Automatic annotation (TrEMBL):
Higher taxonomy: Bacteria, Bacillati, Actinomycetota, Actinomycetes, Kitasatosporales
Domain of life: Bacteria
Matching InterPro entries: GlcG_carb_metab_protein, PduO/GlcC-like, PduO/GlcC-like_sf
PANTHER family, alphabetized: SLR1406 PROTEIN
Pfam families in the record: HbpS-like (PF03928)
Protein name from the UniProt record: Heme-binding protein
Length: 140
C-alpha cells in the first residue's frame, strides 16, 4: 500500500483547480480529501458561497469513497437499480453530481479525490480533471 495522500499533492491539486477556474473566468472552491473522505485541503476563491464550498466537499467525498468520478456515480445513482436505496439515504454526504474525481496511483489505488464546486457541473468536472492531471506525475 502506498503512502497516503500528502499535503503537498493535495494543496497542489486544489491550487491547480483555482487557477484553472480563474483562467476560464470562474470562481470555484476545490476540496481534496484522503481515501476515507476526510478533508486535507480546502481552497475557496473570493466570492464563492457556502453552496459551492459544500458541494465541492461532498463531490470529493463521494469520489473518494466510491472510487469513481462523480459523473459516473451520478449515472449509477439515477439507474433503476438505485430506486430502492437512493444514495442520500445510504450516506447523506454522497452527492451524485459531476465535479469530483479520484486521485489514483499508477497501479490503480485510490489515495484521495478532488471536488470542485462553484460553477456548473460540467465546468466543475472539467476543472477537477485538469487539477487531477496537474498532480498525476507526482502521484505515479
Amino acid at each position: 500500500m502506498r503512502e497516503p495522500l500528502s499535503y503537498e499533492i493535495a494543496h497542489g491539486a486544489a491550487l491547480a483547480a483555482l487557477e484553472a477556474g480563474r483562467a476560464e473566468g470562474h470562481k470555484v472552491c476545490a476540496v481534496v480529501v484522503n481515501r476515507s473522505g476526510v478533508t486535507k485541503v480546502l481552497l475557496s476563491d473570493d466570492g464563492v458561497g457556502l453552496l459551492g464550498v459544500e458541494t465541492a466537499r461532498r463531490k470529493a467525498y463521494t469520489s473518494a469513497v466510491s472510487g469513481v468520478p462523480t459523473a459516473k456515480f451520478a449515472a449509477f445513482a439515477a439507474s433503476p437499480q438505485m430506486e430502492v436505496a437512493p444514495p442520500h439515504l445510504v450516506d447523506a454526504n454522497l452527492l451524485p453530481v459531476a465535479g469530483g474525481v479520484p486521485i489514483v496511483t499508477a497501479d490503480g489505488e485510490v489515495i484521495g479525490a478532488i471536488g470542485v464546486g462553484g460553477a456548473d457541473d460540467t465546468t466543475d468536472d472539467r476543472i477537477a480533471h485538469q487539477a487531477r492531471e496537474s498532480v498525476a506525475k507526482i502521484v505515479a
